[in-house]
Amino acid sequence: MGPRLIRALTRFQQPIFTLMRGRLQGPPTLRLWTVGRKSGRERSVLLLYLDDGSRVIVVASYGGHSEDPEWWKNLKAEANCRIWSAARGSESMVASELEGEEREAVWERLLGMYSNYADYQKKTSRRIPLVALSPASSD
Predict the structure, then answer these.
(1) Contact 12/45 with Cβ under 8 angstroms?
(2) Could you tell me how many helices (H) and strands (E) the chain has, helices first?
(3) Cross-strand bridge partners of residue 80
(4) Widest distance between CA atoms in the chain
(5) Three-state secondary structure string covering 44-61
């Protein structure tokens, strides 16, 4: 699946996600809002997520393409973001990339949730980033 098709599917899925109030069959899904690093405009994307206590983990797989997805590029420029899911509601979050042993342990959990991530990793030479979204402090 090419990047243009991925973007088209996302545009198609977002109204359905909203209409169904996030209650879709399959792995848990959230909407992530980021600030565009070039435009400064708010952008949103639907992503599968792994619940990890107070934080959630999302995967910057982009279907196994050689480039990182735009939402991850945006989060690297500005780590503050918002999410919404049926299970968690709306939350302000801060993004960070998982590394080392923690990344490997979470990767195995993610494969148990959605085995296609292994195929995506085989398709690309880049190491697919795992992104922890942690609650923003309210100070």
Answers:
(1) no
(2) 4, 7
(3) 94
(4) 43
(5) EEEEECEEECCEEEEECC
pLDDT (0 to 100) of residue 132: 98
pLDDT given for residue 10 in this prediction: 62
Q: Which of 128, 133, 116 shows the shortest CA–CA distance to 31?
A: 133
Cβ-contact 59, 110 below 8 angstroms: yes
Q: Which two tokens stand for residue 47?
A: 């992503």
Strands (DSSP E) found in 49-106: 50-52, 55-59, 80-85, 89-97
Residue 40 pLDDT level (bands cut at 50, 70, 90): very high
Residues in CB range of 137: below 8 A, 6 or more apart: none
Number of other residues whose CB lies within 10 A of the CB of residue 22: 18
Question: If pLDDT is split at 50, 70 and 90, which confidence band does 27 have?
Answer: confident
User: Do 30 and 83 touch, CB atoms closer than 8 A?
Assistant: yes
Which two tokens mark 11? Answer: 């545009």
